[in-house]
Design brief:
Elements lengths: L34 E3 L3 H17 L1 E3 L7 H6 L7 E7 L3 E8 L5 H8 L5 E5 L9 E8 L4 H4 L4 E14 L5 E15 L2 E12 L17 H16 L1
Antiparallel strand pairs: 1-3, 2-5, 3-4, 4-9, 5-6, 6-7, 7-8, 8-9
Protein name: DUF5642 domain-containing protein
């Protein structure tokens, strides 16, 4: 899952014809309530480094649920092979990435479904050192694009309900969504499409409030389908 980032107004830089920048959502195609913001691929890669390293150093239970796909992909992204769109709403952040680098979506599925549908992560480094992060994943239906004949080689999308217990006893809760798909295109390079939407975390409290979902499960599935339809052209 991609890191949360600070956004500024703007649109993606144009690239050569049929480059990843041509395959991301346009500002007018974003989900209702979201406004496009500027985020470069370099910014995204840098923002991801800290969380990826913290996860790599953390204690993960079950141990075989340690995520690996973000680290592998992040190391290979650059402005030539990827494009990113970011957007914000009153209570959520959206990031879409399209890249010609093929993501290991199978690794995502292994780390978030079936025996890994509930995981616990205890970071040993970073600003959450010593915290306990309990995540419950709910797998969402496959994209409608796959059911409608799109050439999707692999895909997985999930809702994550996260409870973070800080060393001082404070508890933070958050709901987020992530969708990943590898899309084959006729006479064009295969691309990875990934979409994440993160809700606003609750304030740390010994009796935390219920977190607000950034959108419904169905709304996220629709947004992912829109992203795949745009990338398929």
């Amino acid at each position: 899952m991609l890191a949360s980032v600070v956004l500024a107004c703007g649109t993606p830089d144009p690239g050569p014809p049929d480059a990843p920048a041509d395959l991301v959502l346009a500002p007018t195609d974003l989900p209702p309530g979201f406004t496009a913001q500027q985020l470069s691929v370099a910014d995204l890669v840098e923002a991801n480094r800290g969380p990826i390293q913290a996860t790599a150093d953390a204690d993960v239970t079950p141990a075989f649920c340690r995520p690996t796909a973000d680290e592998s992909l992040n190391a290979r992204l650059d402005a030539k092979n990827a494009a990113v769109v970011a957007a914000g709403s009153a209570d959520a952040t959206l990031v879409e990435l399209v890249t010609t680098v093929v993501r290991d979506v199978g690794a995502d599925a292994l780390a978030t479904t079936e025996r890994c549908a509930q995981t616990t992560v205890v970071p040993r480094t970073g600003n959450l050192r010593g915290a306990r992060i309990d995540t419950r994943y709910t797998r969402l239906p496959e994209p409608a694009a796959a059911r409608n004949g799109a050439r999707i080689d692999d895909s997985v999308s999930t809702r994550a309900d996260v409870t973070t217990t800080l060393p001082d006893g404070g508890v933070i809760r958050q709901i987020s969504f992530a969708g990943y798909a590898v899309l084959s295109r006729p006479a064009a390079p295969t691309v990875t499409v990934q979409l994440t939407v993160s809700g606003t975390p609750t304030p740390a409290a010994t009796r935390p409030t219920e977190p607000a979902a950034p959108m419904t499960d169905a709304q996220f599935s629709t947004a992912l389908d829109d992203a795949l339809a745009t990338a398929e052209r």
